[in-house]
């Protein structure tokens, strides 16, 4: 008897329903990048410490590098690529650009996705709420002041 470790994954990614046979030990990050070709979700620490791989799963910010793809079975995943329509810029992305919060850019998708999760649940967060929501994301360029300003600007752009 052959022990096939491939499993069925049913998932919605960026609005597209998918049904795929995957290795049971594949991380969500590997599925997104290597299987679907969504390279906006970054691989950095690969151990859930830096937040560069942050995506939204059913609206909640998660580290895709430490989440098995099968844990997303039946769930909805949003990546940076699905934030805005092709060729358009989401207000959160625009706020990060306008605030100078895009330094080298490697951490930016994770920060933007964490910001989206925050602003979806709290339209006008204060500084402490922003810092808490973004605490799981690291920026090696030390652009934290600009990032906090970007979240505030995004809030204004989205909710007035």
UniProtKB/TrEMBL annotation:
Q: Which residues form the 2Fe-2S ferredoxin-type domain?
A: 9-83
**InterPro entries, sorted:** 2Fe-2S-bd (IPR002888), 2Fe-2S-bd_dom_sf (IPR036884), 2Fe-2S_ferredoxin-like_sf (IPR036010), 2Fe-2S_ferredoxin-type (IPR001041), Beta-grasp_dom_sf (IPR012675), Diverse_Oxidoreductases (IPR051452)
> Which pathway does it operate in?
Alkaloid degradation; nicotine degradation
Does the keyword Oxidoreductase belong to this entry? yes
Domain of life assignment: Bacteria
GO MF terms here are: 2 iron, 2 sulfur cluster binding; metal ion binding; oxidoreductase activity
Gene3D superfamilies associated with the record: 3.10.20.30, [2Fe-2S]-binding domain (1.10.150.120)
Q: Which CDD domains match?
A: fer2
* Key words of the record: 2Fe-2S, Iron, Iron-sulfur, Metal-binding, Oxidoreductase
The protein's matches in PANTHER family, at most eight in alphabetical order, are given as: OXIDOREDUCTASE WITH IRON-SULFUR SUBUNIT, XANTHINE DEHYDROGENASE IRON-SULFUR-BINDING SUBUNIT XDHC-RELATED
Name used for this protein in its record:
(2Fe-2S)-binding protein
């Amino acid at each position: 008897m052959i022990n096939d470790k491939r499993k069925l994954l049913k998932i919605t990614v960026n609005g597209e329903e998918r049904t795929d046979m995957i290795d049971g030990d594949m991380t969500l990050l590997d599925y997104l990048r290597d299987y679907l070709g969504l390279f906006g979700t970054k691989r950095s620490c690969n151990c859930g410490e830096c937040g560069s791989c942050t995506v939204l799963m059913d609206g909640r910010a998660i580290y895709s590098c430490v989440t098995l793809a099968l844990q997303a079975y039946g769930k909805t995943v949003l990546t940076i690529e699905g934030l805005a329509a092709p060729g358009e810029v989401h207000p959160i992305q625009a706020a990060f650009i306008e605030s100078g919060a895009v330094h080298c850019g490697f951490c930016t998708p994770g920060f933007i996705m964490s910001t989206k999760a925050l602003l979806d649940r709290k339209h006008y967060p204060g500084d402490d709420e922003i810092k808490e929501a973004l605490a799981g994301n690291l920026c090696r360029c030390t652009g934290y002041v600009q990032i906090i300003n970007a979240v505030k600007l995004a809030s204004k752009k989205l909710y007035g």
